Amino acid sequence: MGYDQPGTFSEIVKVSDGEGNYDYDFAVVKVFEKANNGEEGIPDIHATYYPTKDIKAGDKVFFQVRTRWETEGYDVWDFEDGSETVRVKSNIETDNHSKVGYAVMSHRFDKPGDYLVKVNRTVKGITSTAHLYVNGVPSDK
Question: Which residue, of 27, 68, 69, 75, is most buried by count of CB atoms within 10 Å of its CB?
Answer without folding.
Answer: 75
